[in-house]
Each structure stands twice: as structure tokens, then as C-alpha cells.
């Protein structure tokens, strides 16, 4: 949106006046921002080679897991955080069962492609062919969860969504079709060859990370476009005062369902990428902690803000992977990851309750609340 | 969507099926003209009763608004004025009775449908979107008639740009109209109380209403601010919008309205021009705190 249309007084639609790096960024002309964003994206593509940087590089990369695989893990966690941020951060709908959509995406892919699938004789598709169907299934799952929970808010909604994810996990664990612990093997990898070699093989995770990055960038653009439009305004209005929003003409039902299914779609993207990289999935991946972890990432990074969600999502994946292979008293630190997260989150919430990169609106909300508590 | 206060469908059917010219239940107010259908009416509140458990917030209330007038709805605290707005905007469903807007029943319609149909309102306790800028608040109202779909927003199709631009321009005009254009970029919770009240009016006007309902817009204003508000209400009317005004301040209401309905304990106790209402003994009694039965 250009502010030039109102040259006389220059009212702002966003909070571009604020200080700090983001304040500076916001005040720059469009082309500067585009260049900075492009540079950031280019650097992200170079992340697999971080280890080659003298001195700091070796400190950053993981030991217990090869670095490109750790980066790929980060990429699907970031996708999940971005998707959950739409549901929780933008529309204000607390979803504790978000891993359910990741599972639907992954299982959708598996069941259409794996030779272990009951459908194999009919389908046995390539990965790419399964992707649109799996994604459609996750969006449908989003609607199925969204529809009956439309009237629920806050803690009630959280409980129902939690149940939703558990139902998916239990169905996956206990039914013959979804094969429980045995899981699905031989899920095909994404297609493509380069100089006569397959791009997406089993040894090198770098192409998968790059693929994840491309998807992340597309998602960032899409979510940003939605946020800065009628859709984002409607979500925000719903979050702030649902009834007033409806009385002002916002179709609350429609936009809440969209939030659910867009969030589900992004989670499903994470799922299809995961299945395509691993080649194998089983029900033990989709445990409740997974949902909680992603939510913790979003909150830690700064709910309602994409940069925060990206950082939070990356950290919840990076930290445990970085700890892998470091053993203290005979136990791998990785085993302590949840305990450590607990501590880290508590510390962050004390020092920076709005998250590491707070949404400007949320920051304001909290600041005002603090003022109310302790007037100067 | 079934809401807790709703009645069974059978009951509602029966209610809607009730002939509109059925004689009103008789009471102390039978002298008032009840149920006379006015073909020019913009809004008809027709024998509306609304109960909250034991509390009868509206008791067989009828009145109708004509296009282009400024209509006052007054009464002491707890008389049922806000409840009447809530019934008209779909927040509460009348226990019985009908509400028609431009000849069509609006009972049971969704809140956002009623808004798009042409009834906009403000709230007694300001209910802005506090973290949005003033401009964004108004744009939410303007969005009521926009058609940008999620797909056109996602891919920035021409409709998105076009509606975003026109919505923004119209919203800025409305901020200018209510006199807070210079605050357009400020977060609405940082606006002064008076500015917030004006912003609510701008947001309601952005939905392009035929009827604008203002719930005590001058509450807490000093005399100078009240005078400005009166001016604004007249200007709104001059743009062709019918105004329904709830107000406590008798002098303010008398000065601006064409006709007035007085409620007390959920009942209509008087209706007429300001002069007629002012001299009505029941109204005087109500405002002095004497029970109407004694009047
Ligand atoms: N949601 C509700 N549940 C129960 N009772 C309600 C509810 N809303 C209103 N009432 C009751 O209905 C009656 C009318 O309330 P209403 O708010 O319409 O009065 P009002 O005329 O707007 O008064 P005021 O001038 O104080 O705003 C009051 O007795 C009130 O307590
Ligand atoms: Mg009231």
C-alpha cells in the first residue's frame, strides 16, 4: 500500500514510525526493502555451507546429525510455525492439535504412494502427484475441525483441537490401514534429475532443504498478501472483538474457516515435504509434544508476526538438533530437550513476554496492560 | 447459528406467522397509536417483547421510523434502549414481535447480513478494534461491501487493488467528515475518548448504512463537544442517512430530533415530536423518578 495517496498528512496503516532495526526497515523505500529481503533469501540458501566459515561456523553446525538434515528439519518446523501463526497469531484461535494437519499431509502422501498402502494396487503414485491430493485432504481436515468448533474460543477450543490431533494419532496407531508403528516404507522422493543424477536422493539433504526454503518463501508471500488485505483485517477484527466485527459486516464464520484451512494447508505442506524426505513415516512421529513444541515456537518467536514465527520455528528444531551428540554424564543432551525448552521458554517469557520478535500490535497490547497495572 | 437466547423454531414460526394487524394486548399505553402500518416506514418495530429470564427488557414495544428523519429513543437507565438496538442489529432475538427494515423481516438474520442490509450502529461502551489504526477500523466497515475473496487477496488480483484503494479513499473521507482525519494512522486505543466516539461513527458510516443507530454518542461529552456532535448528526442526516439516536441528555435530544419515543421499564410510554413529549406528564414523571402508574 502506498502512503503517497494521502500526501498532505501521511497517515499510516502500519506502525512504521517505530525505532530499532525494524523501524529503520519499515521506513525504507520499497526497492531497499526488496533488496534486503532478496539478500536474506540468498543467504538462507547458503546456510548448508555455514560450517565453512572459519571459527564460528563449526560452532553453529550440528554434531549428532548431519547439518543439511538439521536444516531440513528446521524448514518443516518453520512451515508449521508459519501455518500455526495464521490460526493462533492472526485469527486468535488457540489450536493445540496442529500436528494433526502435518499428519494428514504426511499420511495422505504415504497412502497414495507407498507400496505398503492398501491402495497401492490402484494408486502407487509419484510423490508430486500425491501432493495436491494430500493438501486438499488437509484443507478439508481444517474445515472438518473448524466447522464444529466455530463457536468455541480460548481454552474450550484448545481442548477440542487437542482431541482432534489425538484422534488422528490414535487412528493412525490402531488401524490396519494406517499401519501404526510399522508405518509406511518406500515413500517416493520428489522428482528431478541434474546432470543425469537424481536431485532428491537418500544421502544428500541439501536439495530437500532448498525445496523447503522455496516453499517457505512462497508461503511467506502468500501469508503477507493475505495479512495486508481485507482478509487480514477481518482476522484481526475477529481477534480483537468478534461480535463487534460481525456487527460491522465481517463474515466471521467464513474468515475463521479460512484461517483454519489456510493454517491446515501450510501444516500439510510440512507433512508432504517430511514424507518425501524421510521415505518412511509411522505413528510415533505425530505425538502431542510435537504440537506443543510448535506452539511454543510461535509464542517464543512472537505470535502474530511472521518473522517471529520463522525464528521460533527454526529454534525449536535447531536447539535439540544442536544438542544431539553432546553427552553429559553418559546421557545425550538431546534427551533433555523438553526440560531445556521448558526452562528456555520460561526465561524468554519473563524477559520478553511478547516473544523474541514481537508483533507490533501485540507488543503494544502488552505495554498498555503493563501501564494499567503499574501507572507511572 | 443457534444462540443461547434463541427460541425453538416452532415458537419462532408462530411468532413470525402472527398477523401484523392483530390488535395489541391492551395496557396502560393503549391510547398510543400501536401497530398502524406506515407504508413509508424505513424501520418498523412491531410489538416487540424481549425477556432475559425474568427481566422484561422490552415489553410490547412498537414504533416506526421514516426515511430521512432523526429519531430519538430516550428513557431512564435500564429502560431497554440498548436492548432495542441489540434486537434491531441481530444481537438478541425478540421473544416475540417483528422487526422489519425496508419492508423485510430482519428477525433471525445474521448480524453481518443486517449490517450489509443497511443498518449500522455504534456502541454505548465504545467497541473499536483497539490495536488497529483509526484508518483500519474504518476500512473494516468499508469491507462490508467489498467482494475481494481470499484468492484475489492471495494473488493480489485487480479486485484487491481496486477495492483496497477505493476503501482507503472512502475511509479517509469519512475520517475527515467526522473530524479526525489527522489521527488516521494512530492506533485507535491511543485516541482520546471523544475521538474514539467519532471514529465509531465513521466506522459505522463506512458500511454505507441507510439507517445509523447511535447509542449515547454524547455520553461524557462537555457542552461544546455536544454541540459539535449535534452538528455532525445533522450533517449525517443531510447526506440522506436516517438516524436513530439514543440519548440521556433531554436538551440534546430535543434540539436535534424530529420525533421521539420514550421507554420506561421496557415499555413505550410516549411518542411524538419533541414538544409533545416534553409536555407529556408520564415522561416528566419517568424522568423525575415517579412511577408511571401514579402519573
Ligand atoms: N444480556 C442481558 N442479560 C440480562 N439482562 C439484561 C441483558 N441486557 C440487558 N439486560 C437488562 O435489560 C434491561 C434493559 O437494559 P438496557 O441496557 O437495554 O437499558 P438502557 O435503556 O440501554 O439503559 P442505559 O441508559 O443504562 O444504557 C435492564 O434491566 C438490564 O439489566
Ligand atoms: Mg443503554
UniProtKB/TrEMBL annotation, chain A:
Subcellular location: Cell membrane
Top-rank taxon, per record: Bacteria
Pfam families in the cross-refs: BPD_transp_2 (PF02653)
Main location: membrane
Topology of this chain in the membrane: Multi-pass membrane protein
Keyword Mitochondrion: no
Xref: InterPro entries: ABC_transp_permease, LivM-like
CDD domains assigned to the protein according to its UniProt record, in alphabetical order: TM_PBP1_LivM_like (cd06581)
Keyword annotations: Cell membrane, Membrane, Transmembrane, Transmembrane helix
Chain segments annotated as transmembrane: 31-50, 70-89, 96-113, 125-147, 154-172, 205-223, 257-276, 288-318, 338-357
Record protein name field: Branched-chain amino acid ABC transporter permease
Amino acid at each position: 500500500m502506498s502512503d503517497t495517496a494521502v500526501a498532505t498528512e501521511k497517515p499510516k496503516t502500519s506502525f512504521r514510525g517505530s525505532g530499532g532495526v525494524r523501524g529503520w526497515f519499515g521506513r525504507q523505500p520499497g526497492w531497499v526493502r526488496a533488496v534486503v529481503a532478496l539478500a536474506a533469501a540468498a543467504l538462507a540458501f547458503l546456510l548448508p555451507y555455514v560450517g565453512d566459515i572459519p571459527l564460528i561456523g563449526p560452532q553453529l553446525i550440528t554434531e549428532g546429525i548431519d547439518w543439511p538434515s538439521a536444516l531440513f528439519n528446521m524448514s518443516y518446523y518453520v512451515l508449521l510455525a508459519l501455518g500455526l501463526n495464521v490460526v493462533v497469531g492472526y485469527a486468535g484461535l488457540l489450536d493445540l492439535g496442529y500436528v494433526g494437519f502435518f499428519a494428514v499431509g504426511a499420511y495422505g502422501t504415504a497412502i497414495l504412494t507407498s507400496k505398503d498402502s492398501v491402495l497401492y494396487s490402484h494408486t502407487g503414485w509419484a510423490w508430486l502427484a500425491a501432493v495436491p491430493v494430500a493438501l486438499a485432504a488437509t484443507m478439508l481436515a481444517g474445515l472438518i475441525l473448524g466447522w464444529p468448533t466455530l463457536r468455541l474460543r480460548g481454552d474450550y477450543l484448545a481442548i477440542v483441537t487437542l482431541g482432534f490431533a489425538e484422534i488422528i494419532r490414535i487412528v493412525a496407531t490402531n488401524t490396519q490401514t494406517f499401519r501404526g508403528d510399522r508405518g509406511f516404507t518406500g515413500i517416493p522422493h520428489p522428482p528431478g534429475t541434474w546432470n543425469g543424477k537424481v536431485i532428491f536422493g537418500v544421502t544428500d539433504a541439501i536439495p530437500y532443504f532448498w525445496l523447503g526454503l522455496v516453499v517457505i518463501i512462497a508461503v511467506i508471500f502468500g501469508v503477507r498478501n493475505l495479512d495486508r488485505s481485507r482478509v487480514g483485517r477481518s482476522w484481526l477484527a475477529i481477534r480483537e472483538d468478534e461480535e463487534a466485527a460481525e456487527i460491522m459486516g465481517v463474515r466471521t464464520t467464513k474468515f475463521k474457516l479460512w484461517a483454519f484451512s489456510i493454517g491446515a494447508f501450510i501444516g500439510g505442506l510440512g507433512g508432504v515435504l517430511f514424507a518425501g524426505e524421510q521415505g518412511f513415516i509411522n505413528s510415533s512421529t505425530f505425538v502431542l509434544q510435537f504440537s506443543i513444541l510448535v506452539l511454543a515456537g510461535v509464542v517464543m518467536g512472537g505470535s502474530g508476526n511472521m518473522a517471529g514465527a520463522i525464528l521460533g520455528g527454526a529454534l525449536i528444531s535447531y536447539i535439540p538438533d544442536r544438542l544431539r551428540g553432546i553427552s553429559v554424564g553418559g546421557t545425550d543432551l538431546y534427551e533433555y530437550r523438553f526440560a531445556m525448552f521448558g526452562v528456555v521458554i520460561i526465561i524468554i517469557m519473563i524477559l520478553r513476554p511478547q516473544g523474541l520478535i514481537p508483533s507490533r500490535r501485540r507488543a503494544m497490547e502488552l505495554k498498555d496492560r503493563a501501564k494499567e497495572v503499574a501507572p507511572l | 447459528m443457534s444462540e443461547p437466547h434463541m427460541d425453538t423454531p416452532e415458537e419462532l414460526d408462530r411468532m413470525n406467522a402472527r398477523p401484523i394487524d392483530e390488535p395489541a394486548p391492551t395496557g396502560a399505553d393503549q391510547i398510543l397509536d400501536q401497530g398502524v402500518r406506515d407504508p413509508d416506514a424505513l424501520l418498523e418495530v412491531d410489538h416487540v417483547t424481549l425477556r432475559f429470564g425474568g427481566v422484561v427488557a422490552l415489553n410490547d414495544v412498537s414504533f416506526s421510523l421514516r426515511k430521512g428523519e432523526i429519531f430519538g429513543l430516550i428513557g431512564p437507565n435500564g429502560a431497554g434502549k440498548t436492548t432495542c438496538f441489540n434486537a434491531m442489529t441481530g444481537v438478541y432475538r425478540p421473544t416475540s414481535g417483528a422487526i422489519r427494515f425496508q419492508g423485510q423481516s430482519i428477525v433471525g438474520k445474521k448480524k453481518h447480513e443486517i449490517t450489509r442490509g443497511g443498518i449500522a450502529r455504534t456502541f454505548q461502551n465504545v467497541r473499536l478494534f483497539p490495536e488497529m489504526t483509526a484508518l483500519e477500523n474504518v476500512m473494516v466497515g468499508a469491507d462490508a461491501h467489498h467482494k475481494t475473496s481470499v484468492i484475489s487477496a492471495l494473488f493480489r488480483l485487480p479486485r484487491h487493488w481496486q477495492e483496497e484503494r477505493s476503501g482507503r479513499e472512502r475511509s479517509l473521507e469519512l475520517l475527515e467528515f467526522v473530524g479526525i482525519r489527522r489521527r488516521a494512522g494512530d492506533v485507535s486505543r491511543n485516541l482520546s475518548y471523544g475521538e474514539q466516539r467519532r471514529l465509531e461513527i465513521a466506522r459505522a458510516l463506512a458500511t454505507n448504512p441507510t439507517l445509523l443507530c447511535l447509542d449515547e454518542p454524547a455520553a461524557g461529552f462537555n457542552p461544546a463537544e455536544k454541540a459539535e456532535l449535534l452538528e455532525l448528526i445533522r450533517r449525517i442526516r443531510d447526506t440522506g442517512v436516517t438516524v436513530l439516536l439514543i440519548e440521556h441528555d433531554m436538551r440534546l435530544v430535543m434540539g436535534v430530533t424530529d420525533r421521539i419515543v420514550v421507554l420506561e421499564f421496557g415499555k413505550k410510554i410516549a411518542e411524538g415530536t419533541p414538544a409533545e413529549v416534553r409536555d407529556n406528564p408520564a415522561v416528566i414523571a419517568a424522568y423525575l423518578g415517579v412511577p408511571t402508574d401514579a402519573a
